[in-house]
């Protein structure tokens, strides 16, 4: 296989969750650029439509689809419909997640449940609905968005950190279980990435969290990144593209940390 063919995704059907903005949007854009037909799913339907339209205007193949990953029935019916319409699903990127910052004692059962519903159950549901389509197609690749918080704790995010730790074990366990069906399962663990969600969360935390020990200090954070810049959504999209491509054919159950070296420091 020629090197250029490795990144030719023509004829591939890719589903990306939470793809209306941020990292998911960047992933959808790169997958489409590589030739895949991308289903841009999100619970923010108008924003998903805008993303799909802008991909289409740039010459890519994309369609928008409402899908709230915290709703089991919606996930099942949307993924089944995609499989029926396109006859296959080759790539699933589980990107949708929430990360509302709260001190531990302020996180009630409802917020715990909501976070785990989206960040853990959402991933499990999308995989459960998609695997039969991949089995039918004879192959498939799944990439889950973990986080450096899967390894490195952050104050006021115990619910999120717990969920992202779960994503890593889900990735590894399913890699083991699904390899018999020729399905690879990997994860990308981003560091601090400049996205609308991350910026809003940091802003909200700075104005609401009083504990000075937990203040988000952008300068200190930047100084801890050996590659002296914040990550951009496209840094993650390129890593996802690699794992989704045949370049990574012999890689499964792995977590690719993309953090500018943050965890080393
Ligand atoms: N930005 C970072 O610094 C960072 C760091 C580590 C990991 N991550 C992970 O990367 C992924 C993307 O993060 P981001 O910063 O781009 O997020 P973001 O908040 O900017 O965008 C998230 C997208 O997911 C959608 N979404 C949220 N809940 C949903 C649901 N229930 N169903 C469907 N769509 C839903 C939102 O509408 C939005 O379009 C997440 O899994 C996040 O945990 C991000």
SSE topology:
Layout (H helix, E strand, L loop, with lengths): L2 H4 L6 E4 L5 H12 L3 E6 L2 H13 L3 E6 L5 H15 L4 E4 L14 H29 L2 E6 L12 H21 L4 E8 L5 H13 L9 H6 L9 H12 L10 E4 L7
Parallel strand pairs: 1-2, 1-4, 2-3, 4-5, 5-6, 6-7
Helix pairs in contact: 2-9, 4-5, 5-6
Outline the structure in words.
With 265 residues, this protein is an alpha/beta fold. It has one domain: Rossmann fold (3-Layer(aba) Sandwich). The chain is built from 9 helices and 7 strands, in the order H-E-H-E-H-E-H-E-H-E-H-E-H-H-H-E. It has a 7-stranded parallel β-sheet with strand order 3-2-1-4-5-6-7, sandwiched between helices. Strand 1, helix 2 and strand 2 (37-42) form a beta-alpha-beta unit. Helix 2 packs across helix 9, helix 4 packs parallel to helix 5 and helix 5 (109-137) packs parallel to helix 6 (158-178). The longest helix has 29 residues, at 109-137. It is globular, with a radius of gyration of 18 Å. The model has no long low-confidence stretch (mean pLDDT 95). The chain binds nicotinamide-adenine-dinucleotide. Residues 17-18, 20-24, 42-44, 67-70, 95-99, 118, 122, 145, 147, 190, 192-193, 195-198 line the site of nicotinamide-adenine-dinucleotide.
